[in-house]
Inverse folding.
């Protein structure tokens, strides 16, 4: 049988797939969001629940997304429909893909605003204006940025243009090559910062904060946040990894590939936490400071470090690149869909969706200033989009993908694609995807209502 190919192209090798999927997974979720939600949810117990979610729910669902995408070689909506048909089931399963596309637009609109903050910090670090800054001053600089809609709009617009340009380029040789250099560089710098964190007198407090499992601090809401974040950080539940999987070479092993992606993503999040919290504690700052955590702690640390201006600039550049590769992956499933279904040109599709995201992004950045009094259930628009996607839409998408892979798709198809070394490994996966993952996520959901 001739091997099926995606009309959008395919990754040159398994390594490129790992690189691209890791580029999607490792982003603001790891370096910005993980530390601050850990801080808001009391630390250790939250981290433990998060790790459990990655292992028990995230990895099995990622396996499902990759094999579904690779089997069908189409964008998520079409892939789900095709596999449902092949298995003699209703094409309505495609609707999960539709919800995913909506989630992608919603996530990208606030993600781009935060990426814009990073771009501003590249400039501020590079021009030395953050040198020797105190924690109070750093807090004031960050609040000043949030209060300034025109600067936020400028960076949000620049970032969206960067994203759209790459997505227009297609399954992008350019960004692949860039990530090949940038991802290792990000790792190295993260460890440099981690080393700095270790040298501060707040390291022990930071370590304890992350790894002292005090369950009295855990609420059902924090468990939901941990579940939601495990989807967000691994780019699951909305078809991103499915879309990337559709470009994956046939012969590559899905199991080891997915483990590599999950491992790298988790490593970056933990090291980012261990770099940031010691700085917080040694400067007497508040770990529960929220979204500003990274933007206030890092400038203080770099301001005191030898060569901090240089390393700080480099570090913010790398966070920007990590955000960029993730943002690209948020747009790709929808663009691929419009090209396949509507016969749109890739450029038209990318620009159209880009404009929608850009417009919604303006509402998000306004949440910090001119629209701060607009709230939905007590949350501003930025927080609403974040909460609705990460804590509701992605877990819901995840439940459906698990049910689809476990119950709807013919077992033979799943077994062929996953091609595990042992039969019992497949049985284990099947059990988790049929029962554990959907039930666990559903319970957390219901208990939260
Ligand atoms: N995984 C990305 C991060 O941790 O920053 C964010 C993300 C990308 C979420 C792609 C969802 C997605 F489909």
């Amino acid at each position: 049988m001739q091997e099926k190919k995606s009309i959008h192209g395919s990754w040159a090798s398994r390594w490129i797939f790992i690189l691209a999927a890791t580029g999607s997974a490792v982003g603001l979720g790891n370096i910005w969001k993980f530390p601050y939600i850990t801080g808001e949810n009391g630390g250790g117990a939250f981290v433990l629940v998060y790790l459990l979610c990655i292992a028990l729910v995230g990895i099995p669902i990622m396996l499902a997304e990759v094999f579904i995408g690779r089997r069908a070689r189409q964008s998520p909506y079409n892939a789900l429909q095709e596999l449902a048909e092949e298995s003699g089931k209703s094409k309505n399963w495609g609707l999960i893909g539709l919800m995913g596309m909506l989630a992608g637009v919603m996530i990208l609109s606030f993600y781009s605003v935060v990426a814009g903050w990073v771009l501003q910090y590249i400039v501020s670090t590079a021009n030395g204006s953050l040198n020797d800054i105190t924690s109070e001053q750093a807090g004031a600089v960050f609040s000043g940025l949030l209060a300034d809609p025109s600067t936020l709009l400028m960076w949000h617009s620049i970032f969206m243009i960067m994203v759209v340009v790459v997505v227009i380029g297609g399954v992008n040789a350019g960004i692949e090559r860039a990530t090949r250099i940038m991802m290792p560089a990000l790792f190295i710098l993260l460890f440099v910062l981690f080393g700095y964190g270790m040298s501060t007198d707040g390291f022990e407090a930071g370590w304890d904060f992350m790894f002292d499992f005090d369950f009295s601090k855990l609420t059902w809401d924090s468990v939901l946040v941990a579940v939601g974040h495990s989807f967000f950080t691994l780019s699951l539940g909305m078809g991103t990894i499915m879309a990337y999987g559709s470009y994956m070479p046939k012969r590559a092993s899905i199991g080891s590939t997915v483990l590599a992606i999950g491992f790298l993503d988790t490593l970056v999040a933990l090291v980012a936490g261990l770099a940031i919290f010691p700085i917080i504690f040694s400067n007497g700052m508040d770990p529960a400071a929220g979204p500003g955590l990274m933007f206030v702690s890092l400038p203080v640390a770099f301001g005191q470090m030898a060569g901090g201006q240089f390393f700080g600039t480099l570090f913010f550049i790398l966070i920007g690149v990590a955000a960029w590769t993730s943002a690209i992956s948020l747009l790709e499933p929808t663009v691929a869909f419009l090209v396949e279904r509507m016969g749109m040109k890739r450029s038209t599709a990318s620009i159209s969706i880009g404009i929608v995201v850009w417009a919604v992004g303006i509402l998000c950045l306004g949440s910090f200033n001119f629209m701060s009094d607009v709230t939905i259930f007590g949350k501003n628009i930025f927080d609403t989009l974040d909460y609705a996607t990460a804590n509701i839409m992605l877990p819901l998408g995840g439940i459906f993908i698990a049910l689809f892979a476990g119950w709807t798709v013919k077992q033979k198809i799943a077994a062929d694609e996953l091609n595990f070394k042992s039969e019992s490994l497949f049985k284990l996966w099947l059990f988790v995807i049929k029962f554990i993952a959907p039930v666990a996520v559903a319970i957390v959901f219901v208990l939260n209502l």
Observations:
- Residues 24-25, 27-30, 107, 232-233, 235, 238, 240, 326, 329-330 surround 4-fluoro-L-phenylalanine (CB under 6 Å).
